[in-house]
Design a protein that fits this description.
Oligomer: heterodimer
Distance between the termini of chain B: 39 Å
Number of strands of chain A: 11
Strand content of chain A: over 45%
Radius of gyration of chain A: 13 Å
Number of helices of chain B: 0
Radius of gyration of chain B: 13 Å
Order of helices and strands of chain B: EEEEEEEEEEE
Shape of chain A: globular
Largest interface: A-B, 29 and 22 residues
């Protein structure tokens, strides 16, 4: 079954404690991306990757890092989380780029205290 | 990057009725997409319509695109309670690879 898998689904943590949200896709997609969703603001893209070792900033990259060492994985790293990063996060992938249909993961609800 | 603006922000209807939501945008596009999001879940792609298409169907969904008015509409016919969700239009970003999501239309279908 075609899937984008994110882990964890829920996380409550404290300010400054480094965390990683993993994302994996099994569709051999070139393009992967991370979004955050906040009430009233819709989905905003954090980072995207066109292929292995190729990543670029989205609209709201501050405070986040990503890596793309393998085609299937695209982890999101918060080196020093802060409360304003409390949000619902989605990973997505598509065959070629962000302007093609994307498959989304089920989301990670992150709370930074 | 430009953003699609959905209208209305919220829509409440009875099962069996049709639901229509609209999306307007500002600059030229080569395609437009619609997604659905059930509460707190990931988005699901519904339809992609290209700029040279005027109408597209998928099951009970009908999407139109009017490039002269820079607007698109999503029609759900014979709605069901399971159609309760938020619906987003997505505008491509031209030269960059950052698709822009609107704020969505929240649809509630009462059984």
């Amino acid at each position: 079954e075609a899937q984008v898998t994110q882990n964890p689904r829920y996380l409550i943590t404290v300010t400054g404690k480094k965390l990683t949200v993993t994302c994996s896709q099994n569709m051999n997609h070139e393009y992967m991306s991370w979004y955050r969703q906040d009430p009233g603001l819709g989905l905003r893209q954090i980072y995207y990757s066109m292929n292995v070792e190729v990543t670029d900033k989205g609209d709201v990259p501050e405070g986040y890092k990503v890596s793309r060492k393998e085609k299937r994985n695209f982890p999101l790293i918060l080196e020093s989380p802060s409360p304003n990063q409390t949000s619902l996060y989605f990973c997505a992938s598509s065959f070629r780029d962000g302007n093609q249909p994307q498959h989304f993961g089920d989301g990670t609800r992150l709370s930074i205290l | 990057s430009q953003q699609g603006e959905e209208d209305p922000q919220a829509l409440s209807i009875q099962e069996g009725e049709n639901a229509t939501m609209n999306c307007s945008y500002k600059t030229s596009i080569n395609n437009l997409q619609w997604y659905r999001q059930n509460s707190g879940r990931g988005l699901v792609h519904l339809i992609l319509i290209r700029s040279n298409e005027r109408e597209k169907h998928s099951g009970r969904l009908r999407v139109t695109l009017d490039t002269s008015k820079k607007s698109s509409s999503l029609l759900i016919t014979a709605s069901r309670a399971a159609d309760t969700a938020s619906y987003f239009c997505v505008i491509p970003s031209g030269g960059s690879y950052i698709p822009t999501f609107g704020r969505g239309t929240s649809l509630i279908v009462h059984p």
